[in-house]
Amino acid sequence: MEYEIKHSGKFNYLEEGTGEPLVLLHGLFGALSNFKDLVDHFKQSYRVIIPLLPLFDLTLLETSVAGLSRFVTKFIDHQQLKDVHLLGNSLGGHVGLVYVLKHPEKVKTITLTGSSGLFENGMGETYPKRGDREYIRKKTELTFYDPKVATKELVDEVFEIVNSRMKALKIISLARSAIKHNLGDELNTITTPTCLIWGKNDTITPPMVAEEFKTLIPNSELHWIDKCGHAPMMEVPEEFNKILAEFLNKHK
Fold it and tell me: An example of a Gene Ontology BP annotation on this entry (predicted)?
């Protein structure tokens, strides 16, 4: 992605386009490149913003879903954003849900895709095999229905993370926090319009998770994408963007 990373205060972020703010929250092994097609499409009609979540920069004590949600709160306040369209993939969806539960007045809509918060199979529940690139490649491929989406560049990014002892420890800390921070008892209080876009072949947050979110969040709609895994905005961007655009247009 050839977009410029901006800096303001202690925050680093990408920002493209003008209009209502569309804030994107990446996952545990997420990167800006995960949202390339989404940014290219929606910058025409929205102010698309991706804060770089400090997955590896917080203290171990703060390296949690709650810690990242506090970071997002500070970022949105710093940028003076209101009527936010919030979108999160995987851990980013979980962080977004915690934010909405605490600050519903700031959020116009929330979109979840492959979100944690109820149940997830992850890479981080045990110590990743450092130095074993083949293991990392296979685990990265499990993110997608089509293993070819796990390019060499993507595998290299994940490999670099788990080969750093401190980064690997923080991945484990975040993964365990996501498992412990179950939102099942709180989701029925969310009144924000919610869009669930889910890969039918997601093995990390399986289809039953999407169905549970749909049952628990009152004002929600669920859209399935066939032959698609845990990151629909990467694997089938055209179909994902079409669903998202129709949902956002209803609430613009």
Answer: acylglycerol catabolic process
The model scores a pTM over 0.90: yes
Q: Report helix, strand or coil for 251.
A: coil
Query: Residue 238 domain-assigned?
Result: yes
Q: What are phi and psi of 162, to 5 degrees?
A: -75, -15
Which tens digits make up the pLDDT trace of 193-207? 999 999 999 999 999
The model's pLDDT over 34-70, given as tens digits with 9 standing for 90+, comes to 899 999 999 999 999 999 999 888 888 899 999 999 9
Residue 61 lies in a domain: yes
User: What distance in Å separates the CA atoms of residue 192 and residue 106, rounded to the nearest whole number?
Assistant: 10
Q: Exposure string (b/e) for 145-159, b if CB count within 10 Å is 16 or more?
A: beeebbeeebbebbb
Would you state the structure tokens that stand for residue 51, as one six-digit string? Answer: 């804060």
3-class DSSP state of 116: coil
How many Å is the maximal CA-CA distance in the chain?
48
Q: Measuring CA to CA, how many Å separate 125 from each of 97, 176, 177, 220, 250?
A: 21, 6, 10, 29, 39
Q: How many domains does the chain have?
A: 1
In angstroms, the CA 111 to CA 89 distance is 9
**What CATH number does the domain containing 196 carry?**
3.40.50.1820
Which residues span the domain enclosing 105? 5-122+182-250
| Cβ atoms of 45 and 17 closer than 8 Å | yes
Nearest-angstrom CA–CA distance, 91 and 181: 11
Q: Name the residue among 90, 54, 81 with its Cα closest to residue 69.
A: 54
Q: Is residue 209 part of a domain?
A: yes
At 121 the three-state DSSP class reads: coil
Query: Is 73 a domain residue?
Result: yes
Determine how β-strand 47-51 pairs with β-strand 84-89: unpaired
